[in-house]
Amino acid sequence: MSFADLPFDVGPVYEGERIRGNQMYIELGGPKVEKHFELVRVKKDKEIEDGKITIIGPNIKDMEEGGRYPIGILVEVSGPELEEDLEAVFERRVHEFCNFVNGIMHLNQRYTNWMRLSKSLIQKGFDDLTMLGTVLIRLYKAELPIIKKAQVTLITDPKKIEEPYEFAMGIYDKRDERARTIHDEDVDMYYGCVLCQSFAPTHACCITPDRTSLCGSINWFDARAAAKVDPKGPQEIAS
Ligand code: SF4
C-alpha cells in the first residue's frame, strides 16, 4: 500500500497529533456543529463499487478558513466473511485511520465525531475530500484484509446530511438495544480494548455485557466480533 500519490504523509506515527485552534484550517463535526456522524455498513458484494468515493456538499475549496461544517462519513464494505456484528468494530477504526493523516485530528465516534484539518495540510495540497476517502479505503482494505471491497461517502451539506444522520442514529439505537439484552452472568468471556492508547498510553477498557466501553462505541458483541477476526488486534480476549 502506498500513499506516494497524495501530497501529505500517512502513517501511525501521526496518531495523537493535536491541532489547536490557531493551527486549524477547518473543523468538521464537533460540539459546535449540529449534525454529524460516522457509520460503517456491511453490504452485499454487488452493492459495492470498490474504490468509489462520493462527496455530497461543499468540498475544501468551497469552505472558509476557520469555518465549521457538518461531516457524515459513510464507509460501506463487503467481503465473504463479513457480518453485521463487525460494523461497529470497523466503525471505530475511522478514528484511527483519519488520525494516520499528518494534519488531521479526529476525536470521538458515532454522532460525536470531531475533526480538525490543519492549515499546513491545506498548504501541502489537500484541496479535495476525495483524498480522505482514498486514505480510508486503502487503509480499511490493507489493515483488515477480510474487507475485499470498500466505498466511501462524505457528506458536508447541512440539509443532505439530515436523512443519513437519522438513519445512523437508528442503527446506533438498534446496536445498543441488542447489547442491553445480555448480562455478565450470561457469558463466560470478557474482552479488553487498547485502541485509545495512541492518545492515552496507559488506558485500557475491560468490556463485559454490563460494563460497556468508556467511549460507548464498543459493546460486548462488538468486542467479541473484533477478537474473532483479529485476535492480536486492539480488542482482545481478557478472561
Ligand atoms: S473501548 Fe476503551 S480503549 Fe477501546 S476505543 Fe473505546 S474507550 Fe478506547
Number of discrete helical segments:
5
- When the domains are counted, the total is 2
Strand percent estimate: 15-25%
CATH topology of the largest domain: Bifunctional carbon monoxide dehydrogenase/acetyl-coa synthase(codh/acs), Chain M, domain 3
Uncertain segments are none
Strand order, sheet with most strands: 4-1-7-6
Order of secondary-structure elements? EEEEEHEEHHEHEEHE
Helical residue percent band: 25-40%
Given helix and strand content, the structural type is: alpha/beta
Number of strands: 11
Biggest β-sheet, characterized? 4 strands, mixed
The set of bound ligands, ions and cofactors reads: iron/sulfur cluster
CATH homologous superfamily name of the largest domain?
Answer: Bifunctional carbon monoxide dehydrogenase/acetyl-coa synthase(codh/acs), Chain M, domain 3
What's the CATH first level of the largest domain? Alpha Beta
Known CATH architecture of the largest domain: 2-Layer Sandwich
Overall geometry comes to: globular
Output mean pLDDT.
Answer: 92
Can you walk me through this structure?
With 239 residues, the chain is α/β, with parallel strands linked by helices. The chain has helices at residues 87-99, 119-124, 130-143, 162-179, 220-229; strands spanning 24-29, 37-42, 53-56, 68-69, 72-78, 104-107, 114-118, 149-155, 191-193, 205-207, 235-237. It folds into 2 domains: 12-179, Bifunctional carbon monoxide dehydrogenase/acetyl-coa synthase(codh/acs), Chain M, domain 3 (2-Layer Sandwich); 184-239, Ribonuclease HI, Chain A, CATH 3.40.970.20. It is built from 5 helices and 11 strands. A 4-stranded mixed beta sheet has the order 4-1-7-6. Strands 2-5-8-3 form a 4-stranded mixed beta sheet, with helices on both faces. A 3-stranded antiparallel beta sheet has the order 10-9-11, with helices on one face. The mean pLDDT is 92. The structure holds iron/sulfur cluster. Iron/sulfur cluster binds next to loops.
